[in-house]
Write a structure and sequence with these properties.
Layout lengths: L9 H10 L4 H24 L6 H4 L1 E7 L5 E7 L4 H6 L4 E4 L3 E2 L2 E2 L8 E2 L4 E3 L1 E4 L8 H29 L4
Antiparallel strand pairs: 1-2, 3-8, 4-5, 6-7
């Protein structure tokens, strides 16, 4: 069985699209991708359980341009320990006075380890930390919602721009 359909008014739509500013697509796309990135950022923040809130606050959306002039939005954590929470750590030895990420693990300055109220000695065997994934699972769970957000924002931007050309 044959099935066919006819779309009327396509010439009018094409004429209208040609009237829209050239940079509309780029602006609308940037707005839509930023909104989708913010949806993902919120999902990541919602999955984080930390005592201080530092890890939650470290989740950012960064706008970047490449050499060609294309814009991209990156969702990232600025916390230096984010990967340790996401992937966990193996058991390891901590020695007083060692430099880790540019900071000394010695809090007393006298080659001993302390948490401020107790002195542990010159070395401590850290038992490791279990992984508490928050980044990847949040991306997986929010991907469809982010795409829907992008579609909605893009459609609103196009309609808003088109309305300025309709009598």
């Amino acid at each position: 069985m044959d099935f066919s359909y006819t779309v009327e008014g396509l010439d009018d739509v094409n004429a209208l699209l040609k009237k829209l500013p050239e940079n509309l697509g780029r602006k609308a796309a940037n707005t839509a991708v930023r909104a989708a990135s913010s949806t993902i950022r919120k999902a990541i923040r919602d999955r984080i359980r930390d005592n201080t809130g530092n890890l939650r606050r470290s989740i950012k959306v960064r706008k970047e341009k490449d050499q060609v002039g294309s814009t991209r939005f990156t969702v990232l954590s600025t916390a230096p320990h984010a990967h340790l929470v996401e992937y966990g750590t193996s058991p390891h030895l901590i020695k007083a006075g060692e430099k880790k990420s540019g900071k000394s693990v010695s809090q007393t300055g006298k080659k001993t380890l302390s948490d401020g109220s107790r002195i542990f000695g010159r070395t401590v065997q850290h038992p490791g930390a279990q992984a508490k994934p928050f980044f990847r699972p949040a991306i997986d769970e929010s991907a469809e919602r982010a795409i829907d957000t992008m579609r909605e924002v893009m459609a609103r931007a196009i309609v808003r721009a088109a309305e300025t050309f309709i009598e």
